[in-house]
Write a structure and sequence with these properties.
Layout lengths: L1 E3 L11 E4 L4 E4 H9 L6 E4 L1 H14 L4 E5 L6 H9 L3 E4 L2 H9 L7 E3 L6 H9 L4 E4 L2 H10 L4 E5 L7 E3 L9 H14 L2 E6 L4 E3 L2 H19 L7 E3 L15 H15 L6 E4 L3 H4 L3 E11 L8 E5 L19 E3 L6 E7 L8 E3 L5 E3 L7 E5 L20 E4 L1
Parallel strand pairs: 1-22, 4-22, 5-6, 5-14, 6-7, 8-9, 9-11, 11-13, 13-14, 16-18
Antiparallel strand pairs: 2-3, 4-15, 10-12, 15-16, 15-21, 17-21, 18-19, 18-20
Helix pairs in contact: 2-3, 5-6, 7-8, 8-9
Length: 401
Amino acid sequence: MILLICLYAPLMTLNQVKYSGFGILVTTKVEKFLVSGCPNTPCLVVDLDVVSMNYKRFKEAFPGSMIYYAVKANPAPPILKKLAALGSRFDAASLLEVERCLAVGVVSQHISYGNTIKKVDDIAAAYDLGVRLFAFDSEHDLQNINIAAPGSKVFCRIMTKNTGAAWPFSDKFGCSPDMAIDLLIDAEKMGLEPHGVSFHVGSQQTNAREWGKALKCIALLFNKLRKHGINLDLLNLGGGFPISYRKDVLAIEVLASSIQEYIAQYFSDRLPTIMFEPGRYIIAEAGLLRSEVVLVSTKSYGAKRRWIYLDVGTYGGLAETMNEAIQYPLRTLRDGSEKGPVIIAGPSCDGADVLYRNAGYELPLTLKAGDFVDILCTGAYTASYASIDFNGFAPLQEYYL
């Protein structure tokens, strides 16, 4: 369930308040909403003003680039409407995401079908809706695009290492540069328009050198294709830009400066159109997931760690806690009192529904059932991951302010 709530708050200043010692900022708009009438938990509360602020900051860090918001990060209509009004374009992973963008007034020319794994019927449906930009990384998908979306612009995804990323994509996506060259040549022969290439350095990537390594490789690819008479015009650097969870990361301006130096170094002779697909960076910090403590227990006499069971877990929207990859900042109303080590788990009957065992979390010793635990920086990849009815638990409630 998604609700759009209209609350008055001055726009940016943001009237922010610090919590939990992590330097994470919660806006007064969110705070007022939680205090004025706390909704049933678990629930996700998102401040759309923060979405606007992050989009504008990203745009300023990469002037002249095209930003395609990664809809998969959070496809809620209020977010799509807000970003469309700011001039964003959209990276869709499925036909449904294409339709969601169109439903809020996005023009089809501003949508990229960026998933390299798609059914031919979905390609055809997106084409019928006006989409003309498609990603691919295999001969089969390229042939499907040619059949279902003739004459479209296509870009080939290159496989890259995701060293340093908290949430890597391994080798599921992309192809080798040599294969990409052959496929883009084939695309032209088919009557498609070989438009460019893309890559992704992994989500929550903190090392600018990973972009640099990929750009060096792709510059060689561009040059080789020129010898075949193909002049690519699009360089899609994907997303993966990090935010501060429990640890500080480089500011977007610092990363952007390094990335733009790499672009200038490797593409100085002919600068292509630059495209990004940010998701986490735009939306994560805008969200707060409020949960309730269901149970506090220990497993033996003298146990050094308590188990804290929340009413939200892996299947309720916190899938990125898998392997403790994304470590969300937490706050409670009892912060400031003495803390002790904990294991944090969800409410389901699945033994794998343990959020944090080894990450070193500590929570107040006085924490008890019925207390709230706010999980910060949860605007991205939470609601879109949440199951509908696993173990009979209701879907995550969503509020957009």
